[in-house]
Amino acid sequence: MKSEILDEVQRLASTKVLRALILEDNDADFELILQHLQSSGVRVEHTRAENEKEFCAALQAKDFDVVLSEYRVATWTGLQAVLELRKMGKDIPFLLVTETLGEEAAVECIKQGATDYILKENLSRLPSALARALAEKALQDENARAQEALRLSEARNRDLVENSAYGIFRVAADGSFLDANPTLLRITGCASNADLLALNLARDIFRFPEQYAQLISACRQNGQVHGTEAEWRRRDGGLLTVRMNVRQLSAAGHAGGLEVIAEDVTELRAIERQLRQAQKFEAVGQLAGGIAHDFNNVVGAILGWAELGFEQNRDNPQVAERFTRIREQAERAAALTRELLAFARRQVLQPRAVLSIPSRAGWSVFSTKLSAKTSSSSS
Prior knowledge:
With 379 residues, the chain is an alpha/beta fold.
């Protein structure tokens, strides 16, 4: 990768104008530096600074691709120049081009941020040193995009997990929790991560151990399970139904563990049960309505014949009384039919008082009166 970037920088250096800030107070040395760059095919757009004031002004006025600096300039030094460059937040290659430079001074300059140093007696090394410095800067910039992209990706993934409507968590092979998002705390009724981490998925969360055992077996066999449902216990003792997507972990240190995405479907299942119950009542109501309609026709005929029999036997009280009793029972049947129809049509039934069962003493009196009335009727 580094060699590819170096080749690319060298290619661009011959086609692209390189913006260089050159800190040099010696005219001959300044021209010599430009000559070596141009002779190697590097196109340079240069700005010259001969002292600290001009150097700082140039950095504030323009952006540069590289700084080439003499170590000693008037009352200033290249070490001070590189410190000023970093102080201003300019992250650009800094190359010292100097007559002589002691080992300690060279080490200190590199330590403070200088990229490289070239002795003026060996200026032929300047183009290659410049290309290498630009390549390292390009590689550094590339890594810093990559790192920022990774940071943004991690931030997006973290935000997605933490704000998900699903409980997302991982457990070790023994069922102990490794980590979880806030939604899982809400689902399980835990007040904090510490509360959750003190629990065990198999022992404390699953209501039925056999469901957990079946889940583990399926994961070991297939590696993952989708859409499986189980009953969980909350911390407050409540029960809930969850639908899970489960994947077996294979990373080092977590082999045999599980990654779980859980959805609380307790309300959904309750609504489904209510819907099924309503459908059952609707079916019963339709059946009752059909029966009541047919039965109503029969009762209507009975009432008609009872009324006709009563009218024809007004002069015979004994027979008329029997038709009256038939009509009363038929009317009761008609009332029951109306209630069935009301149920079928989902109408509100009007409550009414019903005959209460008499006490034992009352029942004796009632039975005596009924027997006496029956005897008189028979006679």
